[in-house]
Amino acid sequence: MQNEGKNDVFRGHLEECLEHLGKSLAKHASKGSRAMTKVKKPIADFCGIGIPTVNRWLRGTGLPHGETLIKLMCYLDLAGYKVIEWLKMPHGQRGFMELVGFKLITMTQAVELLGYGQASRIYEVLGGVGSPNEEKKKKMWDELKKRKEGLEQKKTELRTRLAFEPTETIPVERSSVPNANRNNVVDIAKELIRLSARITTLSAQLIEEGVK
After folding, report:
1. Does residue 134 sit within a domain?
2. Residue 1 lies in a domain
3. What whole-number distance in Å separates Cα of residue 171 and Cα of residue 180?
4. CA separation for the pair 37, 51 (Å, rounded)
5. Residue 2 falls inside a structural domain
6. Which of 19, 27, 40, 150 has the most neighbouring CB atoms within 10 Å?
7. What total number of domains does the chain contain?
C-alpha cells in the first residue's frame, strides 16, 4: 500500500507493516550482524520480549496477542506506521489502549477501572469483537483526558530515546568498509553525527499524532 501523509512510514495491515519493517532493516544491516541486533533491540525492549520473538514477527509468524499486541501496535504507531487494525478502533478506545501500551496504567488497573472480570474482555475490544457499553466508553475517555499530558510526554521522550529511522543510525562495521582509509572513516563518522543531530531535531516535530 502507498504511504498516506507526509510523516507516515507505511500504511497497511499489521502483517504488511511488519513485513515492510523487516525489509527496511534488511536493506541496511546484514542478517545476524551486531547492527541488525541493535536496530531490533528497541522493539524488543518496548514490547518486553526477546530478539528471537522480534525475528518471528518480522517473518510474519507467531504474532503477539493480548498486552504484547497492544505494545507492538503502540510501537509501530510511534515509529510512523499506520496499522489499519489500530486505526479502525475508535479514538477513545485506542487512546485508552495507549495508556496500557505506554505503561501509564497496568492491565490490572485497566480491568478494574472498566469493571471487567478479566483482561480478555479488553483484548476482545482490541480485536474488534464486541464493543464496550457507553458507561465503559466514558470511563475510557475520562481516564484518557486525565492522563493526556503524561501520554504525550511519554511519546515525545520515547521518540527521542528510541532514535527511529534505523537506516540513518546503524553504525558502520569494519567488514562493510574493508578498503576504507582513515579519511573515509572520519567522513563517515561525521556524517553519522550530523544525521543523529537531525533525527533529534525532527523527533520533536512528530507529536502531530498525539491524542486529540
Report:
1. yes
2. no
3. 15
4. 7
5. no
6. 40
7. 1
**Burial (CB count <10 Å: 0-12, 13-18, 19+), residue 40:** buried
Question: Do the Cβ atoms of 171 and 38 come closer than 8 Å?
Answer: yes
Q: What is the pLDDT along the chain (212 residues), one digit of tens a residue?
A: 434 455 689 999 999 999 999 999 988 788 888 889 988 999 999 999 999 999 999 999 999 999 999 999 999 999 999 999 999 999 999 999 999 999 999 999 999 999 998 899 888 877 777 789 999 999 999 999 999 999 999 999 998 887 665 443 333 333 333 444 444 444 544 454 454 444 444 444 444 444 44
Amino acid (one-letter) located at 211 = V
Question: What's the grid cell of residue 147?
Answer: 492522563
Residue 10 phi, psi (nearest 5): -165, 150
